[in-house]
Design goal:
It contains twelve helices and 17 strands. It has a five-stranded mixed sheet. It is of the alpha+beta class. It folds into four domains: 160 residues, no CATH class; 89 residues, Beta-Lactamase (2-Layer Sandwich), CATH 3.30.450; 94 residues, Helix Hairpins; 168 residues, Heat Shock Protein 90, CATH 3.30.565. Helix 1 packs across helix 4.
Length: 557
């Protein structure tokens, strides 16, 4: 069903496309956030790495450096190792960070442990190796201790040196007045007891939630050291959400264009073909690809082109044939009129008048045949289908034909006399009449007429004769207008080559077919027309039960 409907395919494609774009956006967010998280971790540790490196560098000998590192490990409650640099394998990017006196952070997502490598000032042979498996509030409050320890060496110049090392920190650090901070009395009391405090700020702005670490300065009672505000890591900031949304919409629009591109291409082909048809070129045909609506449109266009081309060719052939057929009786009438003008013999004049009358009758018959053929050849003739007893129509034609005293034996084979088919009686009678008349014209002495229901469930009528039959290579040509195998145009041959063509068109509009082959019993030609015995009917619900009529839509084959 999906492959037969282009719209269902588009809808299904859109659903799949949305799922793929959502998956693509999710994976892209994960990849971007992986890098963002790494940069965030490194940015938080860069400043402290610099301060710790400065603290170690100030120690005069190796033992004091080890003791300082041990005290720092106890303060942070994190294991800190003083290791040789050749025991730590670093990438080129990590070595560049070490040379810039920044931290290298290696994050293990499975264990949620961060391994931090710090370079040491004036000691390229050693690194500090820190294993941070958990960051507690106590560890956060211990961070200002390292900054204050660094500032001890610059009494009275604390603010100036904080400004110098600010470039190593991704968040602001500074010395501020206690009164300028939004602190309550309890927080101020804790500061007076030399306790650090942490301030949380939840903002609806782009920065989101931030934390600040406020630590008292031993040499001052009115000023404090403030680290922050430090924004917490946001997995979906506005910039990232907007970028991913725009990128997803762009990819989605490309996918939608890809889904609609085949439809656009096929519509362009149909438009091009219609423009060609408008200019008079009916030879172009569309390629039928698949079984969807566009394939049906292409098939309908091809059928329409075939039908229009056939109508035009039929009209041309009809004009040529009509002009030829009309010239013969008209010429005979003109010749007879000239003979009448020069003839005084009364009997001879009566014969000529009789011949003229026959030619006029022939002209009337020809015009009637042409009008019937033209009516059936047009787009969709109006057919009034009804339930017809097939035996009655066959028997009527046999009786009418026998009344003509043709000296030919016509036999109607037995069949159920109550067998009912859906057909227009007038045209069904015309088919049987034309087939029987054609058989009389070319048979030797015997004709067999039959009808009923074949093994495929189709209604059929069959007319056989014992004549010479029709060569296999000519069996399709005989259904063309004005086609006669003997090429005779005399009155003795009878007909104008329209009878079988009319039968073919009636069969077409009945939704059936007409075929000719060799009669297995008589040896001559056997004409068989088959069509659906019953057609779709819809009751008229707006009428009373006594006035219900059946509406029979035309079913094109």
């Amino acid at each position: 069903m999906f492959k037969h409907s282009i719209f269902l395919r588009i809808y299904a494609g859109l659903v799949i496309l949305v799922v793929l774009v959502a998956l693509f956006g999710y994976l892209l967010v994960q990849i971007i956030n992986y890098q963002r998280a790494q940069e965030y971790r490194e940015s938080l540790t860069d400043g402290i790495a610099f301060i710790i490196s400065e603290g170690v560098a100030r120690q005069p000998n190796a033992q004091q450096k080890i003791d300082w590192i041990s005290d720092a490990s106890d303060l942070l409650e994190l294991p800190i190792y003083y290791v040789k640099s050749d025991k730590v394998e670093l990438t080129r990017a990590e070595r560049r960070r070490i040379n810039d006196r920044r931290a290298v952070v290696r994050w293990d997502a499975q264990t949620s442990v961060a391994y931090i490598v710090l370079g040491l000032k004036d000691d390229p042979d050693h690194y500090l190796y820190i294993k941070a498996d958990n960051l507690t509030e106590r560890q956060m409050k211990a961070l200002p201790v390292f900054i204050l320890d660094y500032l001890v060496y610059y009494p009275g110049q604390e603010k100036e040196y904080l400004a110098k090392i600010q470039s190593h920190f991704s968040y602001p650090i500074g010395i501020e007045s206690v009164q300028s901070l939004p602190l309550d009395s309890e927080q101020i009391g804790r500061l007076r007891l030399d306790h650090s405090i942490i301030l949380y700020r939840d903002s609806a702005s782009i920065r989101g939630t931030t934390i600040s670490i406020v630590s008292p300065i031993p040499s001052s009672t009115s000023e404090v050291l403030v680290m922050g505000p430090v924004p917490l890591f946001n997995w979906m900031p506005f910039q990232l959400a907007a970028g991913i949304t725009l990128l997803s919409l762009f990819v989605l629009s490309l996918g939608v264009y890809g889904l609609l591109l085949p439809l656009q291409r096929k519509l362009r082909e149909v438009s091009y073909a219609l423009n060609k048809m408008k200019s008079g070129n009916l030879s172009m045909r569309l390629e039928i690809d698949g079984k969807d609506e566009m394939a049906l449109l292409a098939s309908s266009y091809n059928k329409m082109s075939d039908h229009i081309q056939r109508l035009i060719e039929s009209q041309r052939e009809l004009m040529r044939a009509v002009s030829h057929e009309l010239r013969t009786p008209v010429a005979r009438i003109r010749f007879a009129m000239e003979m009448l003008a020069d003839e005084d013999d009364y009997e001879y004049r009566l014969q000529q008048v009789e011949q003229i009358d026959k030619d006029i009758e022939a002209l009337n018959t020809l015009i009637d045949e042409i009008m019937t053929y033209a009516k059936l050849e047009q787009g969709t003739p109006s057919l009034d289908f009804e339930q017809v007893i097939l035996y009655d129509v066959l028997d009527q034609v046999v009786v009418e034909t026998e009344a003509l005293k043709t000296q030919k034996k016509i036999e109607l084979l037995p069949m159920p006399e109550n067998f009912v088919v859906d057909a227009e009686r007038r045209y069904l009678h015309r088919v049987i009449q034309n087939l029987v008349g054609n058989a009389i014209r070319y048979c030797d002495e015997r004709i067999v007429v039959s009808g009923g229901l074949d093994y495929q469930g189709q209604a059929y009528i069959c007319v056989e004769d014992d004549g010479a039959g029709i060569p296999e290579e000519d069996r399709q040509r005989i259904f063309e207008a004005f086609s006669r195998l003997d090429d005779s145009r005399t009155r003795a041959s009878g007909g104008y080559g329209l009878g079988l063509s009319i039968v073919s068109r009636i069969a077409f509009w009945f939704g059936g077919t007409i075929t000719v082959d060799e009669s297995p019993t008589l040896g001559g030609a056997r004409f068989t027309m088959s069509w659906p015995p019953h057609r779709y009917r819809k009751k008229n619900k707006h009428k009373s039960s006594d006035e219900h009529k059946e509406e029979v839509p035309l079913i094109e084959p």
